[in-house]
Amino acid sequence: MRFIPANATPTGPFEGPEKLLEIWFAPSPADIPGSSGHRDGLRRVPREVWEDMLDIVKCKILSVIQGTETDAYLLSESSLFVSPHRLILKTCGTTLNLLGVPRILEIARDHASLPTVYRLFYSRKAFMFPERQLGPHRDWREEIDFLDRIFPGGAAYTIGKVNGDHWLLYITTPGEENADGGTRPNTPSERAINGVDEEADTPGLDDPPAVDLTDELSHDYTIEILMTQLSPSACSHFMTSDHIPEAEELEPTSHALALSQEIGINELFPSHLTTLDAYSFQPCGYSSNALLKWRDDAGTNPARNGEGYYTIHVTPESGWSYASFECNVPLPTRPSEQAKHIPDLKTLIRRVVNIFQPGRLTLTLFVSSEGNNNAEEDGESAVEAAQRAFKTALTMPRGKLGVSASAEPARTDGFSGVYKRTDKINYEFGGYDLAFATFELRS
């Protein structure tokens, strides 16, 4: 998932794990002053202004799809999503993600009349090659110090094994007295911090009542599947130079869309709900953004989200192979008629894992506490249900999941997909809850 000019050659290993920055300037599009719909706020910023910011970060725009609620930019190093009230910047390699923050704040103030930050999130998996990073990204402490200078009320966490697979998070929390979106970047507030490693969940086929978050209006939901040690057969699809005759020139978008169809990426969500943008890199690598209309009334009510995204990025080289999947569409924890053919969490995990066949993977579900608390009324919180779904999807043989074979891509190349869980942590933050788990493939 990197841009390499045709006359250049790769220089050493490539850092697949991304730096993920998410900045909210208001709780929803409806909270933007003078808003009249989903095309106001940050979506009014011209493309060339975003390109100016991305020059600081050291990446380029390759293409863009415009949805009813979000603009999805495919970048030379991952993705940029722009909604009226929120920006998500995800970059890999040695990009300088955090150096773009001051410019983003200027753009929001000057071009969208959004002078204050409601919430900020910055997260990443542990780097494979930290010594290759530049600027504040050379060390987690440097990244924290950089953000603290802009957001003095922020808090930083390391989740997972410090000497193994772990996930890093920096988060700011709006003060209760200004919960309407007028929060200053440095507003302090009390946080409920409760790291819990619960092991009392031996899942079976009889799941508890489904936690279906698709009926909630105001919660925020993001699932990430971060995969390493991809199987050689899975990586081979993304070795572009092996599939393009020397006399032919690669057409990056058409090749990537055909590949998406071939290996089952098009089948992750119903095609009639999905607009897919994809790009094949040369000599290797793949990126895609998709916009998903998961509500029939998407785009009609600024206070009600109805369009989400997923994004996939693949670095297939042996020795540092990596693939990431991220999605913000609320998923039920088991099949539900209310979900309008949106896959449940277990089914989606199996679909993604069967495509990339990783030796190791990290899963995170980040959900706003309101959605988590509402789910508790049905007897199980969203993060508890997610942990159960993670384990059931990955540690049980395919035939015992209650998932039909047609629900998964047919091309698995003999891949069993049976894992053992190596870590499980639930966290409560200020306004958000996290389910974190790591797995490795059973031999």
From TrEMBL:
<dbReference type="InterPro" id="IPR048283">
    <property type="entry name" value="AdoMetDC-like"/>
</dbReference>
<dbReference type="InterPro" id="IPR016067">
    <property type="entry name" value="S-AdoMet_deCO2ase_core"/>
</dbReference>
<dbReference type="GO" id="GO:0008295">
    <property type="term" value="P:spermidine biosynthetic process"/>
</dbReference>
<keyword id="KW-0745">Spermidine biosynthesis</keyword>
<comment type="pathway">
    <text>Amine and polyamine biosynthesis; S-adenosylmethioninamine biosynthesis; S-adenosylmethioninamine from S-adenosyl-L-methionine: step 1/1.</text>
</comment>
<dbReference type="GO" id="GO:0006597">
    <property type="term" value="P:spermine biosynthetic process"/>
</dbReference>
<dbReference type="InterPro" id="IPR018166">
    <property type="entry name" value="S-AdoMet_deCO2ase_CS"/>
</dbReference>
<protein>
    <submittedName>
        <fullName>Uncharacterized protein</fullName>
    </submittedName>
</protein>
<comment type="similarity">
    <text>Belongs to the eukaryotic AdoMetDC family.</text>
</comment>
<dbReference type="GO" id="GO:0005829">
    <property type="term" value="C:cytosol"/>
</dbReference>
<dbReference type="Pfam" id="PF01536">
    <property type="entry name" value="SAM_decarbox"/>
</dbReference>
<dbReference type="GO" id="GO:0004014">
    <property type="term" value="F:adenosylmethionine decarboxylase activity"/>
</dbReference>
<keyword id="KW-0620">Polyamine biosynthesis</keyword>
<feature type="region of interest" description="Disordered">
    <location>
        <begin position="176"/>
        <end position="207"/>
    </location>
</feature>
